[in-house]
Every structure is written in C-alpha cells, then in structure tokens.
C-alpha cells in the first residue's frame, strides 16, 4: 500500500511516515485529554449540588456575579466535541496526504501545510479553553469560586484542569510536526511539479485547467470537514438544550423540527453535493454541476441564517459562540470559493482535460481517440 502511494520517492515515504506518526501520537494524547475532560465535566456537575446549597445560604443563584450554572454546564459539555473534532482532524490530514500522494497533488500538499498550521493554533486555544471553563471571580460567594474550592479540597483525586500537561505536550508536538511537514512538503512540491509536467505536457491552457480541477477537488474535501464540524457542534447544543433543566431548554417538538431540518441539509451538503460534483467532473455533465451549484447556494443561505442566529441570540449558544462563528464563516468563505471554482470547471468541459487527468492518475476516463486532434500534445 505504501509503495503504491509513495512509489520510488524517498520524500513521499518520509511524508507518509511523518504524517502517520503525527496522527498516532496526537490522537493518543488527545484521547487522554478527552477522558480527563469528561471526568472533570462529571465532577463539575456533581459539584453543583453542594455548591448551589452553599450559595443559597447567601443569595439566589440568578443574582450572583460571574457565569451561571447553565453557562458552566454547556461550556464543559461542548468542549468535549472540540476534543473529538481535533482527533478527527488528525485522521483527516492523514487521509488528505494519502490522497495527495496517489494523485500527486501538490496544491493539496500545500493545503495540508496550512491545515497543520491551523491545528497548531487550535492546540494553543485548547490550553486556554481548559483554563477558561472555571475562572475565579470577584466576591467570595460565586458559583465558579465555590466549585473550584471543592476541587481544591485535600485528598481530591481529580484536581481541576488535570489535562493541562497533556495539552501543553500536544501544542509543542504540533509545532514540531507542522514544521517538519512543511520542510517535507517543499521537497514534494519540487518532485511532483516535474512529474506532472512530464505527464500532462507543456500546454499552458491545459495546465491551468488542471490546476483549477485540483483546487476544486481539494476545496470540496475541506467543505465536507468544516460542514461536519459545524454540524457536530450544532447538534450537541440542540441535545444539551433538550436535556437541560434551564429556562432556555427545548421541548421535544422544537428539537425534532430542528434536528430533521439540520440533518437533511447536512446530509445534502456533505454527501449529495460532493457526489453531484464528482459525477459532474468525471462525466463532464453540466446538469450535475448546475445542480451542485444550486445546492451550494442553498447551503450558503442556511449557513448565513445560522450565523445570524448566533449573533442575534448568543445565550442560546453559550460556550460555543466563538467556534460556531469560526466554522460558519469558514463554511461561507469556502462555499463562495467552491461555487466559483465549480463554474470555472464547468466552463472547461469538453476541452480534453479528462483524458489528460487520466494520464496523471494512471487511469484514462475517456480513450484518447475521443479527444480531437487539435487538442492533443506530446508528453515526452
């Protein structure tokens, strides 16, 4: 399998080994962080009993300064989703690299470099998130202060933020892995650039069309990842609102309607639309591409509506506002770029690109005889 992906390239083998080690090490550490966070979340919820009892001797919870029970509960629960997304991101970058090796896609390799840099930033945010769940506030009798006092009691087997050492380790290792992969990617860029040049030829127009094709396929993969990331966060909030005991909780009918609508749109955006795009490219079908563009516009509208809800009703998304905003804005930017590239790809249909894509990947989609003689060129 490795020899098929990497071929005789030493740097390709290095990249696969490096990315695999990164995935295994970071996933293992992140799994430990997730487990410790889940224990911490459970203990915080248990602490609400004695904490609430102690606070009620002084005043009502609703009149206390600082974050309230709902915000603390929802923040801690939603953070578990972010740890899971970080684990999925590691597996995602490895899959992207394997795909880039198979197709010799230098653009996708550069995108993985940027994706790793984003994960470095998120690893830093992860450390801050852990500290921000419970922060001491002014005044002796506040809910966060009382819960922190419970964690700090002598003999407590689970101290607050027990995962911080692992979080710092993930941050340091991600810096090393991202830097190392950037060096390897530069070597691969030089190797693959020459390989594709020899196979697809020196025709500038054809190379430009192939470049648009590669970028479009790559952006589609990031579309799926970020759309799924948003869906995971949004669905977790819906479930929390349904199971919560606060005034903002959802009833069964509300949750059912939201879930049905969101799942239909998510399945469409993450499964149906990519299938339409792939079929449209491979068959050069303008009908499929037009359907993809129409569906993409619908997805953009849905993301804009959700972004507006986050801004207009922030209390509904307590603990997830910033990250929902980040994922939604990312979806919007990627969506606009995807639609523009889809239109460019559709314009390039019937110009002989598919036959030459087959040359690069090793499997012709259409026989060369189907390409008119004035669109052929030598690949020697």
Q: What does this protein structure show overall?
A:
Keywords: Membrane, Transmembrane, Transmembrane helix. With about 375 residues, the chain is mainly alpha-helical. It folds into two domains: about 1-200, no CATH class; about 205-380, no CATH class. It contains eleven helices and no strands. Helix 7 (about 205-245) packs antiparallel against helix 10. The longest helix is centred in the first third of the chain and has 47 residues, at about 10-55. It starts with a helix and ends in a 19-residue tail after the last helix. About 30% of the residues are buried. Residues about 360-380 have low confidence and may be disordered.
Task: Give a brief rundown of this model.
By secondary structure, the protein is mainly alpha-helical. It folds into 2 domains: 1-200, no CATH class; 203-380, no CATH class.
> What is the percentage of strand-forming residues?
under 5%
Give the oligomer, counting copies of the same chain as homo and different chains as hetero: single chain
Unreliable stretches covering 5 or more consecutive residues: 362-380
C-alpha-based Rg, rounded: 25 Å
What's the domain count? Answer: 2
Report the principal-axis shape. flat
Q: Determine the N-to-C terminus distance.
A: 28 Å
Number of strands: 0
The major sheet is characterized as: none
Mean pLDDT, to the nearest integer, reads: 77
Number of helices: 11
- Please state the structural category: mainly alpha
Helix content: over 70%
The sequence of SSEs as H and E is HHHHHHHHHHH
């Amino acid at each position: 399998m490795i020899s098929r992906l990497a071929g005789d390239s030493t740097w390709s083998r290095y990249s696969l080994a490096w990315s695999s080690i990164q995935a295994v090490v970071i996933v293992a550490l992140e799994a430990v962080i997730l487990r410790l966070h889940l224990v911490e979340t459970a203990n915080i919820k248990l602490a609400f009993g004695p904490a609430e009892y102690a606070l009620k001797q002084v005043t009502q919870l609703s009149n206390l300064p600082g974050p309230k029970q709902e915000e603390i509960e929802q923040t801690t629960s939603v953070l578990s989703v972010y740890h899971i997304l970080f684990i999925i991101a590691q597996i995602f970058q490895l899959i992207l690299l394997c795909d880039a090796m198979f197709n010799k896609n230098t653009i996708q390799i550069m995108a993985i470099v940027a994706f790793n840099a984003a994960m470095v930033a998120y690893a830093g945010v992860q450390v801050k998130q852990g500290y921000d769940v419970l922060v001491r506030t002014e005044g002796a009798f506040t809910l966060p202060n009382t819960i922190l006092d419970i964690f700090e009691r002598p003999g407590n087997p689970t101290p607050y933020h027990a995962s911080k050492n692992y979080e710092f380790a993930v941050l340091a290792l991600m810096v090393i892995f991202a830097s190392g992969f950037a060096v390897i990617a530069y070597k691969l860029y030089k190797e693959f650039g020459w390989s594709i040049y020899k196979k697809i030829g020196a025709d500038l127009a054809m190379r430009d069309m192939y470049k648009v094709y590669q970028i479009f396929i790559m952006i589609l993969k990031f579309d799926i990842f970020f759309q799924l990331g948003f869906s995971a966060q949004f669905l977790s909030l819906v479930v929390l609102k349904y199971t919560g005991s606060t005034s903002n909780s959802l009833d069964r009918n509300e949750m059912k309607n939201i879930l049905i609508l969101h799942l239909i749109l998510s399945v469409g955006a993450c499964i149906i639309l990519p299938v339409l795009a792939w079929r449209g490219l491979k068959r050069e079908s303008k009908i499929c591409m037009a359907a993809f563009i129409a569906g993409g516009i619908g997805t953009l509208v849905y993301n804009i509506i959700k972004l507006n809800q986050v801004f207009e009703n922030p209390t509904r998304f307590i603990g997830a506002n910033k990250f929902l905003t980040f994922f939604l804005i990312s979806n919007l930017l990627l969506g606009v770029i995807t639609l523009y590239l889809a239109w460019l790809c559709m314009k390039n249909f019937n110009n002989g690109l598919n036959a030459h894509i087959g040359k690069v990947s090793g499997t012709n989609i259409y026989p060369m005889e189907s390409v008119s003689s004035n669109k052929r060129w030598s690949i020697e």
